[in-house]
Amino acid sequence: MRVAVTGANGMLGGEAVAQLAGRHEVLALGLGPGRPPEGEYRWLEADLGDGQAVERALLEFGAQAVLHAGAVTDVDGCEREPDVAWRVNAGGTQQVARACRALGARLVAVSTDYVFDGAAGPYGEDDVPNPRGVYARSKLAGEWAALSIAPDCAVARVAVVYSGRATARPTFATQVVEKLSRGEPVKAFVDQSTSTTLAASGAAMCLELLLESGYRGVLHVSDETVLDRADFARRVARRFGLQGEIVPVRTADVKLLAPRPLRGGLRVERAKGMLRNRPLGIEEALARFHVEWGRRVAA
Ligand SMILES: NC(=O)c1ccc[n+]([C@@H]2O[C@H](COP(=O)([O-])OP(=O)(O)OC[C@H]3O[C@@H](n4cnc5c(N)ncnc54)[C@H](OP(=O)(O)O)[C@@H]3O)[C@@H](O)[C@H]2O)c1
Q1: Is 135 one of the catalytic residues?
Q2: Which is nearest to 6 in space by CA: 91, 93, 79, 64?
Q3: Is the minimum distance from the CB of 11 to ligand 1 under 6 angstroms?
Q4: Whole-angstrom Cα distance, residue 3 to residue 263?
Q5: How much is the pLDDT for 167?
Q6: 51 in ligand 1 pocket by Cβ < 6 Å?
Q7: Is the CB of 94 under 6 A from ligand 1?
Q8: Which of 130, 198, 259, 271 has the most crowded Cβ, counting Cβ within 10 A?
Q9: pLDDT by residue (tens digit) across 109-164?
Q10: Active-site entry in 114, 135, 162, 215
Q11: Is 238 left (phi over 0), alpha (psi -120 to 50) or beta?
């Protein structure tokens, strides 16, 4: 099958490319200098923000299925550059959805728990979004574009993605490991509860949704456990056998450009009932993260 992945340099997209490579004809689309893990796929640079490049690439490839994981993901950066956020997160998703419609291709568009305001999470698929901030609003607009333009479409929401792969960008999880390893303290919010998503786990669920299920509509595919960031940091430290100080921080005491959902998180019962690749509990996810990290250090 001809499968295209946008955001292929990213954590989730890169993991998806790694899982697809050698099993399908894969087109990996990205923009920056990073690259997905090595494997059998075709690489193409195309800008989701330019109105046409990605649409054209998908049409030329003749994609039969598209995992759309490309997005501007820096939530504070989106406040600084709202035009870019809207062009990429909303406009880029429109491009992808138009191509899927023209090709009759299946689409899974990846989205975020940030579409909810965080007043009363964790949230199920049928809860009503109330996005706060440019990133959140532009992603919800992307969801609507995907679902309304592409007839065969699912939106897959994840939360706090992290990966131990060498090609993955730094995240809170990797900073916890690196800082504690150097004996430095780690600041962690105690009042933001959220789900987390090991990229490998989220990618596996997204690909199953894309290639094996005909499900249409929104599905939450983060890992299962909802916890605050300080608890997450403590569990990472314990899993890696690291001592050191986790310094509790409250959101109101830190100057952040974009609002953060405080009682966020995604309910994943629907995915658990539907998919072979189940959302992981936090300890299983961290065990896999630890293995990924070990390979990265050994390489
Ligand atoms: N990261 C999280 O914590 C998180 C949480 C909830 C939801 N999500 C969603 O999950 C999906 C995957 O994100 P991720 O976690 O894998 O984040 P990521 O590592 O930041 O990957 C996003 C990728 O999007 C690509 N991108 C950005 N602007 C682009 C443009 N103009 N044209 C083409 N590609 C562009 C980047 O490509 P280059 O590297 O090539 O520049 C980047 O590799 C996104 O839809 C995101 O909104 C992420």
Answers
A1: yes
A2: 93
A3: yes
A4: 36
A5: 87
A6: no
A7: no
A8: 198
A9: 999 999 999 999 999 999 999 999 999 999 999 999 999 999 999 999 999 999 99
A10: 135
A11: alpha
218 phi-psi bin (left φ>0, alpha ψ -120 to 50, beta other) = beta
Q: Which of 242, 241, 204, 222 is nearest to 282 (CA)?
A: 222
For the chain, which residues score pLDDT lower than 70? none
Distances (CA, A) of 231 to 45, 194, 245: 39, 11, 12
Query: What's residue 51's pLDDT?
Result: 85
Task: Give residue 147 CA to ligand 1 midpoint distance, Å.
Answer: 19
13 close to ligand 1 (CB < 6 Angstrom): yes
Ligand 1 midpoint to CA 72 (Å): 5
Best substitution site from 6, 12, 209 to test ligand 1's pocket, by max atoms within 8 Å of Cβ? 12
Q: String of b and e for 177-203 (b: at least 16 CB within 10 Å)?
A: bebbeeeeebebbebbbbbbbbbbbbb
| SS3 assignment for 146-185 | HHHHCCCEEEEEECCEECCCCCCCCCHHHHHHHHHHCCCC
> Mutation test of ligand 1: which of 73, 74, 266 has the most ligand atoms closer than 8 Å to its C-beta?
73
Could you tell me if the CB of 90 is within 6 A of ligand 1? no
Number of alpha carbons in the 13 Å side-chain half-sphere of residue 98: 14
Report how far Cα 246 is from the mean position of its chain's Cα atoms.
Answer: 25
